[in-house]
Amino acid sequence: LTAAPAPQGAAALDLKLSGLKGGHSGSDIFLQRGNAIQLMARALHAVSRDHAIRLASFAGGTAHNAIPRESFATAVVAAADRDAVAAALEAQVTAIARELKTVEPDVAISISAGEAPAECWDDASSQAIMRLLAALPHGIETMSYDIPGLVETSTNLATAQVADGKLDICMSTRSSVASALEALRGKIRATAELAGAAADEHDGYPGWEPDMKSELLRVVKALHERELGVDPKVEAVHAGLECGLIGEMIPGMDMISFGPQIEFPHSPDERVKIDSVGRFWKLLTATLGELAS
To answer: Helix (H) and strand (E) counts for the chain?
Structure first.
């Protein structure tokens, strides 16, 4: 990012987009909740087409596996244009709120007059930030062709933070199909390069394909019915699991994953269903006893 002196007589607007629910970037991605980083960039980019906006700050998100709930920015505008820009941003967020009213009833933007900074990012850097964050994909890319209702490939625009004169953006991308994962990573990299940004890729969770003929699965299904009195619901999930990491190191290991009922992980609404913990413990100890015998 290239810093430059703020325009003479400029005014600053401190922006906060909040009220979003967030959630787990894998298991909750199908809910199609709002992404605070993307929505802030969308509003700013739309308004910048009619008003000169330079940015002095931008931040959002907390973790790679959490859908961002809040984002913050400081917009530097001509003093005479401050009220018009504020009104235009509010109109953008009002339109977003209408779109998302079913899943995000509390989304809102807070706009306050801030102290104009001595410097901000130049026009080219400001436009690059808004365009890149508005263009990067977020959410479901494809649903599974084989398992109805299962997300196959998705990505989370997770964090955006400024450090050492650079904007660092973290994307967390998931897929149960290796080639689809690489294709989506390629799309993200191409989008970044079009904006003049570099893209670094890191290893993620290995895929773990279901084995419906697993002997361990057969044992636990029978124990679930015997100990808990009902047939278990067996399904695949769109989330990273330790089994994938273990399976990559020990190919062919027979594995399943089960646990108590947890909802909305990686958000302030995270909770566990208390009576499911007892059922889980009963099934776990019965499984260990069966395997030991």
So the answer is: 7, 11
Q: Residue 129: what residue type?
A: I
Chain centre distance of CA 72: 16
| Predicted confidence (pLDDT) per residue in 123-169, tens digit | 999 999 999 999 999 999 999 887 788 899 999 999 999 989 999 99
Query: Which token pair is 271?
Result: 């909770």
For helices 123-135 and 36-48, the axis angle rounded to 10 degrees is 130
How many CA atoms lie within 13 Å of 166's alpha carbon, on the beta-carbon side? 8
Measured between alpha carbons, how far is 272 from 268 in angstroms, rounded to an integer? 12
Distance CA 290, CA 293 (A): 5
Locate tokens 């002997």: which residue?
215
Q: How many Å apart are CA 201 and CA 67, to the nearest integer?
A: 19
- For the chain, give percent helix, strand, coil, nearest 5: 35, 25, 40
Instruction: Tell me the per-residue pLDDT of 178-214, one tens digit each, with 9 for 90 and over.
Output: 889 999 999 999 999 999 999 999 877 777 777 888 9
- Chain centroid to CA 158: how far? 5
Which has the closest alpha carbon to 40: 116, 124, 110, 125? 110
- Which one-letter DSSP state was computed for residue 24? B
Tell which residue, 44, 43, 45, 25, has the closest CA to residue 33.
25
Task: Write down the pTM of the prediction.
Answer: 0.82
Max CA distance (Å), the chain: 80
HSE value, Cβ hemisphere, 13 Å, CA-based, for 60: 30
- Beta pairing class for 54-60 and 71-78: antiparallel
Ordered DSSP codes for 113-130: EEPPPSEEE-HHHHHHHH
